[in-house]
Amino acid sequence: MKPYLISLLMGILAGLIYAALRVQSPAPPIIALLGLLGMLIGEQLVPIVRRKLAGEPLTASWFHRECIPKITGTPPPEQK
Prior knowledge:
Layout: H1 2-20, H2 30-43, H3 45-53, H4 60-66, H5 68-72
């Protein structure tokens, strides 16, 4: 969580600097960011379909362990 907060704060600082210099920010528009999020989510549909075709169950724990880290960029949870 800490790296996300630091990233957000640095982004705000950069935005303040751009505004003070009256320079247009090079940040992509929100629609582009939503497209990137869609790509990350779409990538996880293939493993889900493969798992279903193999007759394996889709459980919340499997989704949390296999898909969520790839979408959010966080490390997978520890195996018990």
